[in-house]
Design brief:
Blueprint: H1 2-30, H2 61-74, H3 76-79, H4 103-106, H5 110-119, H6 133-147
């Protein structure tokens, strides 16, 4: 009887510890960093010189396929499979990821998009040192083919 009671107490202690850890983890995930909460896509502007950056790649099936693979590895978790900013990790960010399906996103031009992809702005990481220039353009080729509104 004593062993059974000890096992039950031990199980209860483990359950309470796990509940406490889950609660603490939930509170940590729910915390919003207000330093970035006011930053919106409309307020994040690339410098004027970014407008002069031109896409050197051709929008070929090979470049689009390569861009899709890179997008799925590096971008889907925040921007979502459909490019709407609803990726699973994006839900925990202090700033909602950009919705690539909006015409307002594409009004900024591909040079500005390339600049933002290259330089990042918290919580968006910079990809200048992670992806080659060619690969960053392939991502933009894919994004334009998959998400850019037809107008």
């Amino acid at each position: 009887m004593v062993k059974r009671y000890s096992a039950e107490r031990k199980a209860l202690a483990v359950a309470l510890t796990m509940a406490g850890l889950l609660t603490a983890g939930s509170l940590a995930l729910a915390h919003t960093d207000t330093r970035h909460a006011s930053i919106s896509e409309a307020k994040w502007k690339a410098p004027k010189r970014a407008d002069k950056i031109r896409n050197p790649t051709k929008m070929t099936a090979a470049n689009i396929a390569a861009g899709k693979a890179i997008f799925n590895t590096n971008c889907v978790m925040c921007h979502g499979v459909h490019g709407n900013g609803n990726g699973t990790a994006g839900a925990f960010l202090s700033v909602k990821p950009a919705d690539f399906r909006k015409a307002s996103f594409w009004k900024q031009g591909e040079g500005a998009i390339f600049w933002k992809l290259s330089n990042g702005k918290s919580p968006m990481p910079a990809f200048r040192d992670k992806l080659s220039r060619h690969k960053r353009w392939q991502v933009i080729d894919y994004m334009a083919s998959a998400f850019k509104p037809k107008s």
